[in-house]
Write a structure and sequence with these properties.
It is built from one helix and six strands, in the order ββββββα. With 120 residues, it is mainly β.
Length: 120
Amino acid sequence: MRKNYDLPAYLFGNNEYLVSHWAEPYPVLGAWGSARETIPLVPKYHYIFHFSNGYGASVIKGPGTYGYEEDLWELGVLSEQDGEWHLCYDTEITDDVEGYLTVDDVKKLLDEIKGLEAKS
């Protein structure tokens, strides 16, 4: 079960389009993945945005994401299809996820996604 560890909803500005955010402990294996080693828990942060144009964003930072080691964020564009939200790889913004993003980079991309022409 996901818990909200007081992750600030305002991190990316005043976001009326933020539908969920959470942080959860994430196990990281030791150098050899030995079960005998202590497995520390590190936070994995995730924000989900949905915009009225049918697009949204998944913004994440955690082990395995592009930029995690540098304390940076990864963003994937989402699109709504038949009431469900999925990663979208065919916008003018990007055809993949964007990594190594500062908070300001994320804010800029969120504005761009919000400004996309509505899906028909």
